[in-house]
């Protein structure tokens, strides 16, 4: 895995679009191997496969996502998680750096630069879900500002939507990152884009979903009872207990001190948006993110 990551890191650090695309695909392929089952049937026999028609071969079952319990016991996932704990092999940090370089590059007329940005965002979202401690990199102002820059009205709707998904993942169960988001005028950025008449309806729906997510009550994550626990029910606890290991103590801090009440966040948002009380009421009645908050 180190050899694959080294090759991918070299590619995404290039200034050539073709190499960057190759590196991002290598990372995406690695994540797919970790998250997807092979789709092979245990009852299949070589002799039987030789007699299958081309039509039947084309109907072979597609890979399916592994369950969380399967991931926790998977050797590839364990090795991936182990490597992410160090600075040298942390993929999320490298992809974020690549994304920053892409934003500094001149946009191409054929839209290839935008496609590379979208690919980077897709990889980044998956990485933050697979390795939650990597979310601490967005406790740094420059990395949080990177996501906010992607919400600029000059970016295409697809990039704005993808950036919002990564932003949600970066803030999920990480209240200290939410405080950085607020300090960087993130609420102003989001609400300005929401009120902009040129913003597409699809993006406005994503922005509204983000505001519902932001207004959710924040709760401290209970640490795991044992450092080496890897059972599915305690994976999140292990992730959060080790959340400061990727980049030292930066972006960390006392999680409980970082927590704000729903009323405090409602007040913050009301500085930029009217009828926040209505949003809170809708949130309390529909509870759209209950299953997410429980994770």
UniProtKB/TrEMBL annotation:
Compositional bias segments (type: Polar residues): 52-61
Residue span of region Disordered: 38-68, 242-261
Record-linked InterPro entries: ARM-type_fold, Cell_div_Cdc14
One Pfam entry name: CDC14
Domain of life: Eukaryota
PANTHER family: CELL DIVISION CONTROL PROTEIN 14
Protein name: Cell division control protein 14
Higher taxonomy: Eukaryota, Fungi, Dikarya, Ascomycota, Pezizomycotina
